[in-house]
Amino acid sequence: MTTIGDTGDTGTARSWWTEHSELGVSVLLALTGLLVLGDTLAEGGGGSASDPLGPRTVAFVLGAALLVLAALLTVDVLRGGRGEAEGGEDVDLDTAMDLRTVGMLAGVIVATAALIPLAGWPIAGTVLFAGATYALGSRAVLRDLGIAAAVSLLTWVLFDAVLGVDLPGGPLMGVFG
Q: Which residue from 42, 44, 43, 37 is spatially nearest to 59, judged by alpha carbons?
């Protein structure tokens, strides 16, 4: 069995990739930039007489910026740049990740995404906010539900009334919308 410290070919290759693991972030940035640019190019439409740039301009700028950042990060890593390890005083680096909490948060996010078209944002947002507080350790369920419902309803009203962004209201659409 070859390990990182061995001088065999596999150990050297593995060691190089271990030393340059930040290249994975570069690849992710580049793929995301290409996806944004590809999706923007596939989307039809452009500007109008009153808005010659159109909504695609921001997507082009973001896609290009992601590609530039990927290239800059790649150059930095290949020149020996390294990310700093977490140095926070409240972080125990020897403690394993709490997969239960991560799983609960992931479940809450998936449930919220599934609930938005069915129950609307006020209810789905309440599930999101209350579920996240529960997953992160709060056990004051009634208080958390009340705060989550208020925040969710407030964000829905603000997005709808102030920003003009139409979030689905679900069963509350006739009451507040």
A: 37
